[in-house]
């Protein structure tokens, strides 16, 4: 067919420009990636639209259902997407919202729209990336339905019944042509995000139903989140099981020309210092930004001003540093603003400069008043910061001494380390191995050119409950730090990492899991940047081996794999199965073939996707209650909940 040659205004061309073709061509531009993460963004995008209805005050319940075929339905009780004729596009507004790019916006209703980062691209993007989408609207006492396929209308809007309420129901089937890695939704990922959304929007109920998995009573697995306390409940959730310095959490809110500010904060006896979460329009600002800067500056200022005024800091004393003031602090900052600017590498850093002063003014006033009115917890908070200051100075002195010693004795690696010969960190690997005997096997098994072995004797110190000073005086920990080469704290430098793959290799039993979790805690607290860079891994030794003839062994890494392999054999011809209890049971050749050889080993890359979740998992495991800890480890020993492959 010849192309139209009219040089003038052409309707069909404008449609093409605004249509959804670009979304299918470059999905990554709209949803970040087409991996599992991008897949989950589809659900977030639809839910965000319902949350916008909640922010505007018209919706208080959202139900998300994962169906057996991995389609997802999101139901809300908002106003329903308008169904009237759109004056310019000559089709119902709901069809405009779903088929035209960037037409998802609500036409200025005074609410803070969730827009920015990867969210806020509009439900039309989800439509474009779905093989099928069905949208039902309850409005005007009627029930309407419209259907699409890959962004194109397949069934025009029609009335399918009557209705006594309002709301929107969106069901979509993610397109396997786009999501080539997976179209399977992960319950835990959705659960974590919806819990977070419920915390951030007090009173809003979000329910999640998984029809793929049934519980004991044969009902679909489900959760329902609703928090009347909002971010106060969020902070309580984060500090569960910890010893508290102020209880309940301090809470204040402020509203001004910059937008709304809400803060909840609670100090604990913990030594953690990176437990302040920030959000802008419900989006987690992992890279921080102006709201976080305003918060930190004001917390430091207010604590020092109070301590000086009450004579708790003398004239000659140094100011408490920001880190001192925030040691053991768990807080949530949530701001809502009209035109958020998201910057940074992952577009998760808030850039609006007016938010810096808005948050710092709110904190100066809110925290200042709290301290004045609550002298007892105020005193505990100042004491905690003062002790942190002293510990910091002591650690600095200790470092200076070791530095000096270091110069005299020249830099020396720990004696137990069997280093690799390569000096190229990018190709070098460090295996942290449980016990001397497994360490011996690993030393024989390794490729010495690029694989180093550090055997650990016994348990490592729980750094979540020990201060930096004590952690540094532990032999295992200091061996680990010198072997890795980055140092920690103010002196940490990721560029000095001597290995770009640091692999935790423990037995597949409870003790191994315990050591694994202690090591993860160590990396999380002292070298989080290495986790962010993807340098930390967990080795996966096989659990079972099936002998095929004399030499050949089939290795199996999970119970499910074993069950599947055994099905292949008739009842009377089941082969012998070896169960490997520990690394020590494997000879060096086996250890190499199954666990260390890059050609065929399986490793889990540790990835702190969600700071709140990881922080909680760590303290749930490592907090003061010992009984639940053991139980938890046993249950989750091989669970990759906060690990990503
Ligand atoms: C456009 C305008 C209005 C609401 C919505 C869209 C809307 C979209 C979605 C998506 C999922 N649930 C939704 N609920 C509402 C404003 C409606 C009005 O002014 O009545």
Topology:
Blueprint lengths: L10 H8 L2 H5 L1 H5 L4 H20 L5 E6 L5 E5 L16 H7 L23 H6 L1 E10 L2 E8 L2 E11 L4 E8 L12 H14 L4 E10 L5 E6 L5 H9 L10 E7 L2 E9 L8 E5 L2 E2 L5 H20 L12 H5 L2 E8 L5 E2 L5 E2 L3 H20 L1 H35 L19 E6 L1 H10 L5 E6 L11 H6 L1 H10 L16 E5 L4 H17 L1 H5 L3 E4 L4 E5 L3 E5 L2 H9 L9 E3 L8 H9 L6 E4 L4 H12 L3 H11 L6 E2 L1
Parallel strand pairs: 1-7, 11-13, 16-17, 16-18, 18-19
Antiparallel strand pairs: 1-2, 2-6, 3-4, 3-6, 4-5, 7-8, 9-10, 10-13, 11-12, 14-15, 19-23, 20-21, 20-22, 23-24
Bound molecules: 3-[3-(1H-pyrrolo[2,3-b]pyridin-5-yl)phenyl]propanoic acid.
The coarse silhouette is: flat
Domains (count):
3
Measure the end-to-end span.
49 Å
The CATH homologous superfamily of the largest domain corresponds to Histidine kinase-like ATPase, C-terminal domain
Structural class: alpha+beta
């Amino acid at each position: 067919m010849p192309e139209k040659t009219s040089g003038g205004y052409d309707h069909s061309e404008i449609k093409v420009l605004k249509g959804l073709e670009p979304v299918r061509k470059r999905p990554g531009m709209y949803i970040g990636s087409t991996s599992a993460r991008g897949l989950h963004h589809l659900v977030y995008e639809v839910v965000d639209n319902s949350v916008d209805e909640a922010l505007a005050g018209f919706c208080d319940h959202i139900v998300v259902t994962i169906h057996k075929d991995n389609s997802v339905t999101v139901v809300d009780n908002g106003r329903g997407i308008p169904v009237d004729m759109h004056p310019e596009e000559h089709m119902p507004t709901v069809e405009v919202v779903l088929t035209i790019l960037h037409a998802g916006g609500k036409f200025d209703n005074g609410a803070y729209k969730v827009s920015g980062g990867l969210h806020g691209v509009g439900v039309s993007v989800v439509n474009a990336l779905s093989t099928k989408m069905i949208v039902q609207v309850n409005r005007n006492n009627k029930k309407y339905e419209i259907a699409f396929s890959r962004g194109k209308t397949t069934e025009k809007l029609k009335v399918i019944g009557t209705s006594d309420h309002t709301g929107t129901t969106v069901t979509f089937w993610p397109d396997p042509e786009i999501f080539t890695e997976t179209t399977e939704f992960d319950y835990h990922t959705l659960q974590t995000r919806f819990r977070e959304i419920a915390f951030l929007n007090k009173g809003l109920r979000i329910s999640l139903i998984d029809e793929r998995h049934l519980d004991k009573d044969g009902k679909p697995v489900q959760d329902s989140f609703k928090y009347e306390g909002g971010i106060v409940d969020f902070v309580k959730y984060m500090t569960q099981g910890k010893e508290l310095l102020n209880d309940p959490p301090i809470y204040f809110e402020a509203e001004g020309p910059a937008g709304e500010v809400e803060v909840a904060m609670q100090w604990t006896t913990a030594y953690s210092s990176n437990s302040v979460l920030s959000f802008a329009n419900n989006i987690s600002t992992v890279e921080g930004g102006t709201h976080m800067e305003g918060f930190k500056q004001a917390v430091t200022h207010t604590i020092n001003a109070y301590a000086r005024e009450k004579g708790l800091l003398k004239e000659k004393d140094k100011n408490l540093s920001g880190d001192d003031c925030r040691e053991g602090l768990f807080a949530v900052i949530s701001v809502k603003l009209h035109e958020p600017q998201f910057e940074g590498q992952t577009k998760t850093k808030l850039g609006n400069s007016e938010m810096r002063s808005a948050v710092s003014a709110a904190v100066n006033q809110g925290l200042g008043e709290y301290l004045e009115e609550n002298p007892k917890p105020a005193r505990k908070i100042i004491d905690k910061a003062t002790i942190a200051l002293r510990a910091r100075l002591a650690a600095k002195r200790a470092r200076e001494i070791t530095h000096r010693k270091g110069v005299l004795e020249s830099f020396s690696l720990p004696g137990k380390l069997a280093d690799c010969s390569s000096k190229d960190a990018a190709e070098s690997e460090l295996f942290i191995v449980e016990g001397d005997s497994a360490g011996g096997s690993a030393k024989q098994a390794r490729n010495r050119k690029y694989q180093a072995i550090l055997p650990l004797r016994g348990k490592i110190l729980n750094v979540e409950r020990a201060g930096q000073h004590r952690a540094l005086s532990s032999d295992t920990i200091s061996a680990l730090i010198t072997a890795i080469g980055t140092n920690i704290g103010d002196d940490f430098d990721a560029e000095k990492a001597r290995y770009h793959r640091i692999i935790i290799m423990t037995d597949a039993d409870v003790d191994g899991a315990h050591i694994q979790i202690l090591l993860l805690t160590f990396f999380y607290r002292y070298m989080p940047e290495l986790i962010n860079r993807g340098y930390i891994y967990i080795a996966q030794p096989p659990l079972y081996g099936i002998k095929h003839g004399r030499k050949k062994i089939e290795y199996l890494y999970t119970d499910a794999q074993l069950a599947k392999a055994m099905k292949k054999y008739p009842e009377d011809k089941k082969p012998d199965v070896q169960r490997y209890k520990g690394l020590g049971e494997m000879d060096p050749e086996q250890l190499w073939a199954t666990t260390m050889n890059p050609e065929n080993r399986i490793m889990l890359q540790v990835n702190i996707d969600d700071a709140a979740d990881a922080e909680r998992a760590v303290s749930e495991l490592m907090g003061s209650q010992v009984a639940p800890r053991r139980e938890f480890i046993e249950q989750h020993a091989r669970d990759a909940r906060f690990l990503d492959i």
